[in-house]
Amino acid sequence: MVMDAVASLPNDDDSDDPDADAGQQLLLDELVKPADWPEGKNWGTLTIDASCTPADITYPTDLKLLNEARETTERIIDDLCDQLSDLRKHRPRYDRGRARAVFLNVAKQKKPRSRKIKAAIRCQLDYLQRNLDAIDALIASGAELSVLTTHWWHKLLVISELHRQQSILLYAKTRSMPDRIVNLVQRQVRPIARGKARSPFEFGAKISVSVRNGFAFLHRISWDAFNEAEHLIPQAKKYKKEEGCYPERICADRIYINTKNRNFCTRNNIRLSGKRLGRPPKDPEVNAAHKQLLSADQRRRNEVEGFFGSGKRKYSLRLIMPRQAMGAETSICMAFLVMCAEKIRRLLRIFSVTIFAWVYAWQWPDCLWMALRNICLLETTEMLVTG
To answer: Is residue 300 within 8 Å of residue 26, measured between CB atoms?
Structure first.
């Protein structure tokens, strides 16, 4: 499989030319599978990658979350105390303005020391524990939580879990916490480690996308972090189920190139993008051809990156506005649906223009020739004037 692909490359001396394999690229990526294609022979290209769709939340910090939780429990306590006058004795006796001042004293600093941050978190945890104990006392004294709306009831449940997590993180040596809460309203959002220079962590849903024949397909949406390398084999099998054969090559990032995926692609005669194992071949021509194949695969992988870029710039994937998990997932799916519809619209427009030009040339060939001649003369004149 690899030797056939190497042999099909053009024998040019300049192997660094980005357009050197343009003809081969078109042969590999025909939009329609030939009718006489041998059954079971691999065909087409599958490009896969993963990204994160950030949610509409502020950047979460432990101190900020605890301060918001404290203010929320204070409002819940006020609502419960308004039911009966005798319940006001269970209200916590601390100065709320002082509690907020402790938070602002650290939050307004540009680079506070870790010692000050831990001290402020410890104070906010103390205030929050008092409020939670007061809510339990109010309920035991006859206060009814039914007066609270669903929004505040859900936030109270999230605050209880947040207090437990932050209490563990305060005295633990690790900063890792499973199902870590980063927002009181959008409790399904989790931190996703992306490793980017600008933002190493993103907060939103992680998606796995595959590109086939110029169309992007959403493979998975998850609010928890996952290893995208595990999705290469399922996506290749899905490609075979829909197309009748495995793809001829799979263009993916380095994280997808592991031993399990290499063995799967080798068994099914699939060329997986990336550097080959072992030492490079001694033959300079074969080595140059391998480098050209790798460069072509990397350029082909830019297609899925382009879909991510256009989706975040034009189709609102950069900031997901719905707060509920179902609404956010629907918004992400609709973005990819609109991208595919826009692709179909562009293809239909090109097809319509081609048909119109063919009919126009068949009925008035002289007029079409004169129009093309005038366009060429105009472009030549502009080039001479510019020179």
So the answer is: no
